[in-house]
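Support case: user asked for a sample of complex input and structure output to validate their parser. Sending the pair below.
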Amino acid sequence: MYEMLSKAEVLTDAADTFASCEPRPPVPASRPAAAGAGARCASCMMRHICMAASLEADDVERLDRAMQGWRTVRHNERLFRAGDPFRSLYAVRAGSFKTVVTPERGKEHISGFFMAGDAIGMDGICDETHACDAIALEDSVVCVLPYHLLEALCREIKPLQRQFHRMLSAEIVREANQMMLLGNMSAEQRVASFLLGISARHRARGYSATSFVLRMTREDIGSYLGVTLETVSRTLSKFQHEGLLAVQGKSLELLNLDALDAR
Amino acid sequence: MYEMLSKAEVLTDAADTFASCEPRPPVPASRPAAAGAGARCASCMMRHICMAASLEADDVERLDRAMQGWRTVRHNERLFRAGDPFRSLYAVRAGSFKTVVTPERGKEHISGFFMAGDAIGMDGICDETHACDAIALEDSVVCVLPYHLLEALCREIKPLQRQFHRMLSAEIVREANQMMLLGNMSAEQRVASFLLGISARHRARGYSATSFVLRMTREDIGSYLGVTLETVSRTLSKFQHEGLLAVQGKSLELLNLDALDAR
DNA sequence: CGACTCATTGACCAGACTCAACACCGGTGG
DNA sequence: CCACCGGTGTTGAGTCTGGTCAATGAGTCG
């Protein structure tokens, strides 16, 4: 979602996948973009925050071979839907996603935003069915990692096992923090915390921590934060008046990280 | 606030410890395990919903041998604290716990309640440090499973690996649902949902789904649900007036599950 | 250019919070 | 045995944050 660098700079390999996009199908096609070919983790800019983190070169190679390839997902299309059978995990290679939980009754809820290097789909493991929809916030590319192969590799490659468990655990911690936010923070604090979170994730990826573009709508942000879109808009305006940031539509510049944090 | 449990207090004989003061543990007094010996998963009533689920008998035996034994945690004492080094996972064998996330600034937040058969501590995997406090809601007993041994076993026993991944994923899904609750449900809906959740967990363990004792305070419930203790109290009173339940202090009887669900 | 989605801002209102008083309950100690 | 006490739970009154409804503006795409 948030990269300020040009797409091409991030995509590298993925760029040609984008270039060769087929005419947009009504439903996302699930076939691998590069069937058979490895996913080239070794050349991926996100390898240090992804599944391949802290692996030796030859283990990265094995992971690569397990990859089913890439898949492109166009803006607003779904990578998977709640109820779909769970078969693979996905790693965002380029672009960004939101995950949406839809209760039987009641409004749908955005449960997370995912950018390059993040893994999506871990909620599907427990009952072999995806528990949410994953929707692309822009034209995106994911690496497809069949779960049974990952399981097998985890039994053989200890660092991979460790990294995978770390990622699962990190998701638990992330959600626990989000629960805390939803449970006892004011609307202002939620928005400030959200912006700082985005900022930190940018920094971790080598992008600007203070200047970025929000890929999601105000409504998405509101849903994620448990407030209305009007409140998000008002809060951003207020922060702007106070000189904490500059906002123009989806473009955002944070002017005072400390003051935001003090909320 | 409360005195800490001495580290040396590793359990030798949980049954005896418990029998002397026990209020009403969900788990029947089972035969004591010798110190250092396995935890006797085979005879544990919770084996179906715990780590040993769907394991062959001899694999259960291996898991047993990996167990470091039991540990008792008395009412209001901590199993671990945020910041403690992560070394083991815990499975609640008897009693119950709450987990508390404490932000640098701001009020602490109850992130979960755990009863017999539940696993605690999975948040510690990602950076080898516990991210929350786990506090006993009553005198309790946990099985202690050193994490490095679990990792090793998961590389050898495929069904155990699968079960462990399921448990991690289930925690992610549980939290996602809780986020949804915190994000867009009214106070009444939150309380109703909470009660139905407790009810379902009791049912899954073979206890009464309609009649039980809440081990936590109104304040705990409120923190967990993102409302104040007064709101919890008022809502319970309202539900009682409407004939949906009968409440007397911590004792609760659900009289109309469907009507609660309709909230 | 029109149609649409998305964002901003204002006015009003209600659900939940805060503050406060009081009841209850189990334990403790005189 | 009773008085006392701290922690807990209930209930009421007043307040305010954030939701709802509505109008308008800005941006985008065919």
